[in-house]
C-alpha cells in the first residue's frame, strides 16, 4: 500500500509540474520516498533484464541517453536528474498506480557522490564510468574524494561488470582497485590537436610518478604508461579507429562503421560506451548504427537553432568540458561569434577559479568576429579574456542581450557556451527566436 501510494503521489506531482511548466524530475521522487523509503529497491527488482548505471564527470547524460535509445521498454532518467530523488521519479514514471513495473531494462544516470545512496537500493548489472575530472571544487573537493566514493559504492555490488574508459588513467586504476570484471573502451589513434590543458590525472596512482604519454586526446585521456611501475593503459576491448571528424563524427569499432551528424570528439567515448553495452549483452551490433540514428542529443549538447544565424548551444561545467567545446569551435573554420556565459549558483559550483584552467587563449585562432561574456560572473569572464589577450570583447550580464548583439554582424555561425543554470533559460530564448 505504501509503494502504491508513493507512486500515486509522484505521478500527481509530475502532472502538477507539467501544468506549471516545470520538469518535475526530482521533487516527485523526494516526496514519494518519504512515503515509501525503499521504493527504488521494490521497483528496480521488477526490471526483467539488465540494469545499467552511468557515472562520470562529463558525458554521463549523453552516454545514458545513447544507451537508452538502443532499447525498448526502458526506465530512464533521461533529463539528467541523477541524484536519488531523480532516480525515484524515473521509476515512478514507468510504474502503474499499483506499484507494478513493466520494463525490460533500466538505464539510470547517477551522480558520483550519490552512488552510495542509490546502490543501497538499486543493484546494477553494468556500471559505465565515462571519465573522472576535477569538477565543482566546493562540492566534490579533490578528485580522490570522488574515486573513493565510487569505490565504496561498488563494494556494495556482488555481481557487476564495469564498462570503463580505458583512456582515462583514473578510471582504469579505479576499475583495477575494485577487483570487479572490467570491460574497456578507448580511442587507439591520435585524433585532432589537444589543447594545452591541466591534466588532473597525470600522476600514477600506484607509485605517484608522473605518467608518460605516447599521445593524448584531451585532459589526461590518451595512451599512457608509467616508467616507474607496471601501470599502463589496459588492452582495449572496444577501440575506435579510422576517426573522421570532417563532417560530424565517424569511426570504426569491431568492424562496425559508426557515423553521426553531430560534433565533439568526446562523443566518440559516449558512443563507444553504448556499443560496449550493446555487444556485451550479445545483441546484434549490425543494428547499432540504425538504432543510434534514432538518438537525438539532449538539451545543450551541441544543440542547433536557426535565429537568422546558425546557433550552436553547448553545456560545459568544468575546464575539461569547456576545453572540448573550444576544440569543436576551432574545428569550424567559418567566421563566428562566441558567447561564454557562467553562473555560480549552487548547482554550478560557487568556486569559479577553474576559469583559469580553460584554454581560452586558443580562441585567438578561431576566426572570431565577436566575443562576449555573460552570466552572473560576466565580469570575471571579461577579466579572464583580458588575461588571455583576446583583444576586444563585449560584456553582458543578460544572455538575451548578448545573443541579440550577435545575430547580424557578418558572422556565419554563433556558438553559445554556457554552464548549468544558464542553460535552460538560454534554450527557451533561442527556441522563441527560432520560431
Compile the SSE list and pairings:
Blueprint: H1 2-20, H2 27-35, H3 39-44, E1 51-55, H4 60-69, E2 74-76, H5 84-94, E3 105-109, H6 115-119, E4 126-129, H7 136-140, H8 143-154, E5 161-165, H9 169-178, E6 181-187, E7 212-218, E8 221-225, E9 238-244, E10 249-253, E11 256-260, H10 266-280, H11 288-292, E12 303-306, E13 310-315, H12 319-331, E14 336-341, E15 368-374, H13 378-387, E16 394-395, H14 399-404, E17 413-418, H15 420-434
Parallel strand pairs: 1-3, 1-4, 2-3, 4-5, 5-6, 6-9, 13-17, 14-15, 14-17, 15-16
Antiparallel strand pairs: 7-8, 9-10, 10-11, 12-13
Helix pairs in contact: 1-2, 2-5, 4-10, 8-9
Report what the structure shows.
The chain has 435 residues and is α/β, with parallel strands linked by helices. The chain has two domains: 44-292, UDP-N-acetylmuramoyl-L-alanine:D-glutamate ligase, CATH 3.40.1190; 303-434, Mur ligase, C-terminal domain (Protein-Tyrosine Phosphatase, Chain A). The chain has helices at 2-20, 27-35, 39-44, 60-69, 84-94, 115-119, 136-140, 143-154, 169-178, 266-280, 288-292, 319-331, 378-387, 399-404, 420-434, and strands at 51-55, 74-76, 105-109, 126-129, 161-165, 181-187, 212-218, 221-225, 238-244, 249-253, 256-260, 303-306, 310-315, 336-341, 368-374, 394-395, 413-418. It has a nine-stranded mixed sheet, sandwiched between helices. It has a six-stranded mixed sheet with strand order 12-13-17-14-15-16, with helices on both faces. Strands 7-8 form a two-stranded antiparallel ribbon. Strand 5 (161-165), helix 9 and strand 6 (181-187) form a beta-alpha-beta unit. Helix 1 packs antiparallel against helix 2 (27-35), helix 4 (60-69) crosses helix 10 (266-280) and helix 8 (143-154) packs parallel to helix 9. The chain is globular. The chain starts with a helix and ends with a helix.
Amino acid at each position: 500500500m505504501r509503494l502504491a501510494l508513493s507512486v500515486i503521489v509522484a505521478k500527481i506531482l509530475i502532472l502538477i509540474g507539467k501544468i506549471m511548466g516545470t520538469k518535475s524530475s526530482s521533487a516527485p521522487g523526494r516526496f514519494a520516498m518519504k512515503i515509501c523509503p525503499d521504493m527504488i529497491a521494490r521497483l528496480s527488482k521488477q526490471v526483467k533484464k539488465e540494469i545499467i548505471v552511468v557515472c562520470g564527470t562529463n558525458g554521463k547524460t549523453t552516454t545514458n541517453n545513447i544507451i537508452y535509445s538502443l532499447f525498448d521498454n526502458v526506465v530512464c532518467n533521461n533529463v539528467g536528474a541523477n541524484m536519488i530523488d531523480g532516480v525515484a521519479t524515473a521509476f515512478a514514471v514507468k510504474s502503474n498506480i499499483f506499484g507494478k513495473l513493466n520494463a525490460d531494462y533500466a538505464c539510470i544516470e547517477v551522480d558520483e557522490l550519490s552512488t552510495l545512496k542509490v546502490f543501497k537500493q538499486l543493484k546494477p548489472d553494468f556500471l559505465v564510468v565515462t571519465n573522472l575530472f576535477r569538477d565543482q571544487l566546493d562540492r566534490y573537493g579533490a578528485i580522490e574524494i570522488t574515486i573513493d566514493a565510487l569505490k565504496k559504492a561498488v563494494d556494495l555490488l556482488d555481481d557487476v561488470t564495469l564498462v570503463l574508459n580505458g583512456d582515462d588513467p583514473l578510471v582504469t586504476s579505479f576499475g583495477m582497485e575494485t577487483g570487479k570484471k572490467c570491460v574497456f573502451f578507448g580511442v587507439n589513434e591520435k585524433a585532432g590537436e589537444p589543447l594545452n590543458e591541466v591534466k588532473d590525472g597525470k600522476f600514477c596512482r600506484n607509485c605517484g610518478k608522473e605518467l608518460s604519454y605516447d599521445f593524448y586526446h584531451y585532459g589526461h585521456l590518451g595512451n599512457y604508461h608509467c616508467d616507474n611501475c607496471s601501470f599502463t593503459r589496459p588492452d582495449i576491448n572496444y577501440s575506435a579507429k579510422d576517426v573522421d571528424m570532417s563532417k560530424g563524427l565517424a569511426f570504426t569499432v569491431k568492424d562496425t562503421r559508426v557515423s553521426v551528424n553531430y560534433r565533439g570528439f568526446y562523443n566518440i567515448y559516449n558512443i563507444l560506451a553504448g556499443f560496449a553495452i550493446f555487444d556485451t549483452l550479445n545483441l546484434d551490433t549490425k543494428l547499432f548504427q540504425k538504432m543510434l540514428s534514432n538518438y537525438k542529443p539532449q538539451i545543450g549538447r551541441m544543440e542547433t537553432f536557426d535565429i537568422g544565424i546558425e546557433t550552436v548551444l553547448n553545456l560545459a561545467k568544468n575546464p575539461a568540458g569547456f576545453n572540448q567545446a573550444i576544440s569543436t569551435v576551432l574545428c569550424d573554420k567559418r567566421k563566428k561569434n562566441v558567447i561564454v556565459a557562467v553562473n555560480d549558483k549552487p548547482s554550478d559550483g560557487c568556486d569559479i577559479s577553474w576559469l583559469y584552467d580553460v584554454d581560452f587563449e586558443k580562441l585567438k585562432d578561431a576566426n572570431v568576429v565577436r566575443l562576449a561574456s555573460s552570466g552572473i560572473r560576466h565580469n570575471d569572464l571579461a577579466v579572464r579574456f583580458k588575461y588571455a589577450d583576446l583583444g576586444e570583447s563585449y560584456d553582458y550580464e543578460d544572455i538575451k542581450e548578448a545573443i541579440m548583439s550577435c545575430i547580424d554582424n557578418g558572422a556565419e555561425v554563433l556558438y553559445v557556451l554556457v554552464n548549468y543554470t544558464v542553460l535552460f533559460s538560454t534554450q527557451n530564448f533561442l527556441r522563441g527566436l527560432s520560431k
